[in-house]
Design brief:
Blueprint (H helix, E strand, L loop, with lengths): L5 H8 L21 H14 L10 H13 L16 H7 L1 H11 L5 H21 L27
């Protein structure tokens, strides 16, 4: 009989935790974040999940993916897009302002070190968003509203 590799033995020995955490997926690798920060993000998402906070397990990874996908588009200037169907999942995938709002909800729930790392990553992405999008001269300047909501929106994308 051939020898079994140690990794396969460890996988068989591992048992998932009981209760609510059994249903929650294990934190995946989030690009450009340290594993300690990914674990802190996963803990924060899990603790706030279900209390109408707008955060769920995997929200940060999905929002960062959407944010980077928007900034990776070609062209000198980018226009914020709206989704065709209007549901939250489609809006998160297409609309960069929704993705940035989700990230803004996650940041205050993190411990100090993880918050600093995520804020540093967001500062770089925000600077690129500021450079590549144009300000909307007709947008209302609400002091409680974030600056990324005052960028020009492509109104033809949802037709």
């Amino acid at each position: 009989m051939p020898r079994r590799r140690p990794r396969t033995l460890r996988i068989e020995q591992w048992k998932p935790p009981h209760g609510l955490y059994r249903q929650i997926p294990w934190p995946t690798r989030v690009d450009r974040l340290f594993p300690r920060t990914v674990s802190a993000v996963h803990r924060a998402e899990t603790l706030r999940w279900g209390d109408e906070s707008g955060i769920w397990p995997g929200a940060t990874a999905a929002a960062l993916w959407s944010y980077r996908r928007f900034l990776g588009r070609r062209g000198r200037h980018l226009y914020v897009l709206r989704s065709r169907c209007g549901c939250f999942g489609c809006e998160l995938e297409v609309n960069v302002t929704v993705a940035r709002d989700v990230l803004e909800l996650v940041v205050p729930t993190l411990p100090r070190r993880a918050r600093a790392e995520l804020e540093e990553l967001l500062a770089d992405l925000d600077e690129r968003l500021w450079r590549r999008t144009l300000p909307d001269p007709t947008a209302t300047r609400n002091p409680g509203r974030a600056w990324w909501h005052t960028r020009i929106v492509d109104e033809t994308s949802h037709l």
